[in-house]
């Protein structure tokens, strides 16, 4: 880009003026100022993108997005935190919401919307027992007119019947009643 080229004030003047002592003195002063201005322009352009930001740009992005930098974190870690925060900014669609929920819970979930309710159903052992932070995050990113319903998906008798499993093969799995009801053993 233009800001990568060093300043050359003299080169814009006609040859007869380039040899003057006053022009040479002006050239030194103007080039210093122009190089500083070009460096500021380059920094401003790079700081528009989180990936190319320096310390000043990352601090600005943290202020804009409301992210607090962890103690002793590297510039790369701060940039990754900012990128993660941008993922939670609109536009949010069902796929993005599902990715956020799965990343938080650590297991596969089914997500669908009907009657202004974002329903999340999951089966298996969640990595996190307290879902309050997940609710807070979701209410922060989804439209205000939606309600969130997160529920566990227990094994139903219809699902069990559709598996065509005999009682002997079920006994061979040596499941407790709790494991049986959770249904995470179903493949």
Automatic annotation (TrEMBL):
InterPro entries: Phage_Mu_Gp48 (IPR018755)
Pfam families: Phage_Mu_Gp48 (PF10076)
Top-level division of the source organism's lineage: Bacteria
Name listed for the protein in its UniProt record: DUF2313 domain-containing protein
